[in-house]
Amino acid sequence: MTSPQPTSDTHTTDTRPAPTPPRTSREVRLVSVPDTLPRPENLSVVETATPVPGAGEVLLRNRFFHVFPALRTVMGDGVPDAPLTPLRPGDTLFGGAIGEVVSAPAGSTLRPGDLVSHAQGWREYAVVAASECAPLDDVLPDPIAHLSQGSTAYGALTDAAGVRPGDTVFVSGAAGSLGSMAGQLARLLGAGRVVGSTSTRAKADRLVADLGYDAVLLRGPEQDPIADQLAKAAPDGIDVFFDNVGGEQLRAAVAAARPGARLVLVGALSSQLSPDRPSPHAPVEIDSFAVILRRLRIQGFSGLDTTPSVRAEWAEKFAGWLRTGDITFPHVRIQGIENAPRALYDAAAGKHLGTVVVAL
């Protein structure tokens, strides 16, 4: 398998109508459930018959799809109560995608060449119910920006955490698809100081230079404990914790929280993407007495909690901020579906900064 060549770009995507689809196309399937992080050999790029749409369905040629590391969580038995379907050997992977309409059912408002967002990524062609396709307009400078996880970060910081001017905000997993947006958003929402955490000095330097962070903590066996680093980076404590990770970093945030602080949990990557023993469950011991005495608010939040009104508000603000340069969409673009299995492994291992996207 060739190594993927990541690039970052912001050019406008060509939206000319797609040609007649081929008889066969490729998709990425799970071959075996990984014992650790998903390696390329756990996946296979297979050639299969190009799907044929039925009544009420749209045939799409995928242009981009999001490489979402937490797919590891649903490989095998999945997670009870989770909204994602378990992936078993032989299943095709799925995830957010931008597709170009090849054909649409009679009476549909969709036309060949239109771009839509949908959830059937990891394949070159997809058949999707017309009701599950969200047409894209030209509000965003580049359609690839529709794969940003910014709406979730925005909802968590506004609806759940209620970031206020002057707040000190701590973002764990600051270099991921959510964290790379959260730092910028916290700054735009008026935070006085933004602290993040990541795994390498190179990513930390970029987070400070380009993505709104004042200081970044480094995790790892050779680093000082996160709690000690956080005490130095935010000596007066924190008001908001945007948590992608859990574990040690959640404990540190509770210890550093000011009275009335808001802790919003959006991920549990310390367990889900542990290279030693990945688990969908993320037990962590915190000081519950500190939670009581300081009247801390701890709330879980997922993309499903972002209300339609907040999504609409986010889309308008995101478009404006992109055009003025007040925000960027950090992403790495991997060319070709044949490089998708390696891209998932690299993303899960924390190689990249921002959202990882496969371009077809």
From TrEMBL:
Residue ranges, annotated region (Disordered): 1-27
Domain of life: Bacteria
MF terms in GO: oxidoreductase activity, acting on the CH-CH group of donors, NAD or NADP as acceptor
Keywords for this protein: Oxidoreductase
Xref: InterPro entries: ADH-like_C, ADH_N_2, ER, GroES-like_sf, MDR_fam, NAD(P)-bd_dom_sf
Keyword Nucleotide-binding belongs to the record: no
Domain Enoyl reductase (ER) as annotated: residue spans: 38-358
SUPFAM superfamilies: GroES-like, NAD(P)-binding Rossmann-fold domains
The keyword Oxidoreductase belongs to this UniProt entry's keyword annotation: yes
Protein name: NADPH-dependent curcumin reductase CurA
Organism: Actinopolymorpha cephalotaxi
